[in-house]
Amino acid sequence: MRIGELARRSGVSERALRYYEEQGLLSPNRTPSGYRDFEESHVDTVRRIRSLLAAGLSTAIIAELLPCMVDTGEGLAPGCPELLPHLERERDRITASIDELTTARTLLTKVITTTPPVGAC
Question: How far is residue 23's CA from residue 95's CA, in Å, rounded to a whole number?
Answer without folding.
Answer: 26
